[in-house]
Sequence to fold (222 residues):
Amino acid sequence: MSIEKNLDVQSIDTPLMVSARTAWSRWVVDDPALGVVADLADLQRWWRKEAPEDRDGVLARLAALASDEVDAAVALAWMLVPGAKGVASRLRDVGADIDGVVASHLWMEIRGSKPPHSYVAKTILRNVENAIMAEHGIGDAGERADRMWSLALVADVIDVPAPDDDPDASPELQRVLRVLLQYLIDVGELSIQDAHLLLTAADYADWLGKPMRVLAGLTAPE
Fold:
């Protein structure tokens, strides 16, 4: 399901958009600065033609309304869908339902209690992307979200080629893993229970299907 369908703003005729368009007629009376268009349906067209500072002023007013008014949140989400698609594209490997993940984070960000006063679109979309990266343990945001990972020190780096997608296609890597675990048990660095725990965690990490980036597999927060 696309981001706009998740938010129910895939057309100007959805129930949420109809309600937001009705509310827009009221807002432009109360706040003439929003009166750049008579109908919310024309706002995206206006947006593409205007200077950044003029566009930002309109979004800032919508963002201020959005924490209290659902209609304003819907209008702002509709305006930010194109940018949200860019976020989803960059994080496509996070999971099959990345559009749903982006849509939910976008909605929470828009409905937050501290709306941005400037660079509204950029700020909201950056916060959405950072929140998703932190949640999935990706990049600097992921490291900051996981205190244990941020305190970890790399003692040595071993350059090992990535295994194939099919574990059965890499019997050599499986053999090396068995030998390594057996060696650690033999020298007293690992107990049988430790080895079972590691293998169980590895099975779970594989089942999660985490993106193969930083904090994937056994280092994922889950």
